[in-house]
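Quick one:
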Amino acid sequence: MRVVTVGVVGVLLLAGCADGSSFDELEAAEQRVAELEEELSQAQEPLATTATSAPATTTAPATTTASETHPLEDVEGCRSYLNDEPGDEFEYWECDENAELRGLDLTGATLWNMNLEGADLSGANLTHANLLYTDLDGANLTDANLSFAYLRATYLPDVDLTGANLFYAYLYSAYLPDADLAGADLRYADLIATDLINATLEGADLTEAKLGYADLTGADLREAELTEAWLGDANLEGANLTDADLFAAGLKDADLGDANLTNANLTKANLSYAYLREADLELADLTEANLELADLTEANLELANLTNAKLGYADLTNANLYKADLTGADLYKADLTGVDLNGLIGWDTVKGKDTIIGLGSLFGDD
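Output:
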């Protein structure tokens, strides 16, 4: 069992949102965590009831009183005991590995610091549940309801969350490498600084989710819905975002090196300062996107739509712009060294042409 010391829950307020409004976006999260800290504080008050002491294998401090029934009380293979150290009295729960937890109603349950490695919680209702620091390595949470659940720093490698409901879930700094979240509902979820390396998020709904500073290296985000999601400073190196919808997404300072963004919708997205070296943006829609100071060295922008895009100071050295639409785009002091202008669409309407670096002699048709 992985032993974790539970202390007062802290909140890291991260600045630097792509649109400059990170404090407003995190204000609700700060208030919510403060409320949860109060709940944890109350959970540490001595309980009036007593329970038989037993060795801990899978434990979670409970918040029940003599008049309440813990949702695990009637589950075969689950039991409680009391940590009766003076001044540090808790009622704990433990469950055997084969305990039947499928479809269980655990609404609002306090299950923090439990070891639920490999547990089958498919279809379980964990709405508003507190799973702080809980070990769910390899657990089955398919179709589980985790809306509004508290999963800060929760251990979730290789977990199966396909089709799960994580609406407004708090997953700050959670550990989810190789997790399967295909088709999951993550709308408005807080995934700041979360480890999602090689995670599967194909078809997941991440509308307005907070993914700033998250590590999504090699993640599968094909056809994912990321409208207005915040991914500032996120690591998406080598991620697959084919057909993903990133309308108005915040990707300032994000690392998208070697990422696959084929046919992705990046309309009005903020990609300023983003790292897009060797990224594949073929057929991507970048209408009105902000790519100022972005690094697009050797990126593939064939047939991409860059209508009215902002590319001031962007580095497009050796990028492929074959048949890309630059109608109305602003290329003030952009670097186009090594770019073949043949086949470009809308060249006559490009702004800042006289400041472009590396053009040499102009050639090619619109």
